[in-house]
Amino acid sequence: MSGRHGHGVERPRSAGHSGFRASLSMWRHYRDVAGIRTMAASDVGRGSETLMTFVKGDLFRVARRFASGASRKALVVTGFYIPQAQRPAAESDGPVGAVELCAAMRAMGGDAWLVSDAWCAPVVDAAAEGVLPSDHVLIAPRDEHFAGWLESIRHLIGEQSVDTAIFIERVGPALDGIPRNMRGVDILQWTAPLSRLASLGLHTIGIGDGGNEIGMGRIANFAIEGAVTDGGRIACAVATRELIVAGTSNWGGHALVCALYSLGCHQVATLLDEAWHRDTLARVAAAGGLDGVTLLNTPTVDGLSESRYYSQIRAMSERAMPKRVIADRARSRRHR
After folding, report:
1. Helices marked H in the chain — which ranges?
2. Minimal CA–CA distance to 208: which of 256, 261, 246, 264?
3. Is 133 left (phi over 0), alpha (psi -120 to 50) or beta?
4. Backbone angles phi, psi at 103, to 5 degrees
5. pLDDT classification of 23: cutoffs 50, 70, 90
6. Kind plus residue range of the DSSP H or E element containing 209
7. Mean local confidence (pLDDT), 81-97
8. Contact assessment for residue 104 and residue 268, using Cβ atoms and an 8 Å cutoff
């Protein structure tokens, strides 16, 4: 866990009257963030628009926390393995959004570590390539060595003053302790218990799209049961302090980055470019990443067409950016 962890990292600004005023002034951007939240929650068939209504203010609260400097160091946990595919691998939803969040934290002067497990490692490593240093990708082992690995994470948290854990498209245990995918399949033997990171005293944030991800315990089980097929059986019992519900979890991650831009964190601007997302998703597919709905190794997410998927990415980015910035970008593209 040693190496470049924490070098050049800006510590969060102390709370006080100036911090309070800055936080209060962010409320004038609430409408833009609410618009981004609604776009991210666009339903692709899993009840996301319904589930989002139970946590409507959470995206703004999370963005304000980071934008105000109350938090700038995070573990970002992802990876959803699909064992029943012809060529088993992690799905494409999750790693892209997770790496985007890590890049955003680092761009704002903070730091982030991407966390997954050995089954998902090839896809997660590919997503992080060129974005994070190798010592910022932390992979949990498959076996009895997990307890020792978890202790090393505790040490990292203390050593680097990590204050937040973000879970994005990471399956968690249902009420009976079994993690299940959207098809109701028990995937315990292919899933390291990374939900334990939610009990390490960190501020916790969940991002999910189907009810079975870590963080969804924040929503009452009856609500997930009513909105999601087989929801009562697959619903994750692990809650997080805030929860962002999206049509795809990558959209949820992007929504948070767009919200940060809306609140004045313009250092994340490069992540609002569609090309960044296409490049990252291409690396994921090249490493074997699977579309979680079709189970095919294609650069797509949750069975959506490229036009549908990227139209939401663009819409959120455009909602976050002032019109003059959008116009400048359009002129720049025309003159390339």
Report:
1. 17-25, 30-40, 48-52, 58-67, 95-107, 121-128, 146-160, 221-227, 231-234, 249-262, 274-286, 306-320, 323-334
2. 246
3. beta
4. -65, -40
5. low
6. none
7. 97
8. yes
Q: Which amino acid is at 208?
A: G
Domains of the chain: 17-334 (3.90.1640.20)
**Three-point CA angle 82, 84, 86, nearest 5°:** 100
Tracing tokens 């029943």 back to the chain, one arrives at: 84
In a 3-state reduction of DSSP, which class is residue 267? Answer: helix
Tracing tokens 């510590």 back to the chain, one arrives at 11
Residue 17 clears pLDDT 60, i.e. is over it: no
Is the Cβ–Cβ distance between 116 and 86 less than 8 Å? no
Give the three-class secondary structure for 113: strand
DSSP class of residue 1? -
Cα 73 to Cα 27, 70, 109, 157, 212: the distances in Å are 23, 10, 9, 9, 26
Q: Is the pLDDT of residue 138 over 70?
A: yes
Q: What is the DSSP letter of 15?
A: P
In the predicted structure, residue 55 carries a pLDDT above the cut 70: yes
Other C-beta atoms closer than 10 Å to the C-beta of 118 total 16
Cα 197 to Cα 204: distance, rounded to the nearest angstrom: 9
Nearest to 113 by CA among 139, 75, 149: 75
Name the token pair of 249: 């979890």
HSE of 133, CA atoms in CB hemisphere, 13 A: 12
**Distance (Å) of CA 140 to CA 79, 152, 227, 298, 307:** 11, 10, 32, 26, 35
Residue 257 has pLDDT above 90, yes or no: yes
Provide the pLDDT confidence category of residue 143 given band limits of 50, 70 and 90: confident
